[in-house]
Design a protein that fits this description.
The protein is mainly alpha-helical. It has 12 helices and 7 strands.
């Protein structure tokens, strides 16, 4: 998104529509003037990007704080640069559809829900609990002044969906971020060669890292290890703390997971932690 904004700034335009019109006019002008070079004739239009999250609840439970920040940033600035969000969930709860997310995504659709509370969570009003199902839905946009409109969603068979996705797949080759692909993922259980330790998905934890040591100090003072507690105290996301938990369990600092309850702490001092971490 930031890269797209930089390109818009270079061309002194405010939104993707103006940018694409400028690129089209430039290519036509070059062709008219007989400039057949690739740089002059290629249409450097910026494609639209649609980000679809099929079930938000799962991701919000895994990395709620980080995901919320990303969604809000894209919702606030993505439209002008051609990036759009489609978010879906079967659990319209405040932990999933947070106040910040709702404030930045005014366009909403609700299918039949169990009760008026779920309807108000999505649409700020009841009504979705009275829908008939089978595509019957309420739509709310900024133009509707807070009054949802009842519309009928079209049925799409599996065959139609396959045809559509195949068509989209044929439009252009996929573009991957090579920096992400090239990052080696350390397999759990295989130790690194430079003395550190790995937790979830290859994340490396240095026993001397101030954040790690602060996590141990908090754990010792509370007498328990809780990922939610450490996320709050450390200001870190779920991925970091979950990976830390995996590593600490592997080296014997904390006990195994026990459902939603905090883990037991197996040490009584930082010195014991250092011995286990460096052994």
């Amino acid at each position: 998104m930031e890269r797209r904004y930089a390109r818009l700034a270079e061309e002194r335009v405010k939104k993707i529509e103006d940018y694409n019109e400028k690129m089209k006019a430039r290519a036509e002008e070059a062709k008219k003037n007989g400039d057949e070079s690739e740089d002059a004739t290629q249409n450097n239009k910026m494609p639209y990007i649609v980000i679809i999250i099929d079930e938000m609840a799962d991701l919000m439970m895994q990395a709620g704080k980080d995901l919320e920040q990303l969604i809000v940033r894209i919702a606030q600035k993505g439209r002008a640069s051609g990036i759009h969000l489609v978010l879906a969930t079967q659990r319209p709860e405040v932990k999933v559809v947070t106040g910040l997310i709702k404030a930045n995504i005014p366009g909403r659709i609700a299918f039949k829900v169990l009760n008026g509370i779920d309807s108000r969570m999505m649409l700020e009003s009841g009504g979705a609990e009275k829908l008939l199902g089978n595509g019957d839905m309420l739509m709310l946009t900024t133009e509707m002044m807070g009054k949802p409109r009842r519309i009928q969603g079209a049925f799409a068979s599996d065959d139609e969906i396959n045809k559509l996705t195949n068509f989209l797949r044929e439009q252009r080759q996929p573009e991957y971020n090579n920096e992400v692909i090239s990052q080696a993922v350390q397999i759990k259980g295989m130790g690194p060669s430079d003395g550190g330790s790995f937790g979830e998905l290859g994340r490396k934890y240095d026993p001397s890292d101030p954040v790690v040591r602060k996590a141990i100090e908090i754990t010792l003072s509370k007498g328990k290890f809780s990922t939610a507690m450490l996320q709050t105290y450390l200001g870190k996301g779920h991925g970091f703390v979950s990976g830390l938990a995996i590593w600490l369990e592997e080296i014997g600092v904390i006990g195994p997971a026990n459902g939603n309850k905090p883990r037991d702490v197996m040490i009584k001092s930082l010195e014991e932690f250092d011995q286990l971490a460096n052994s």
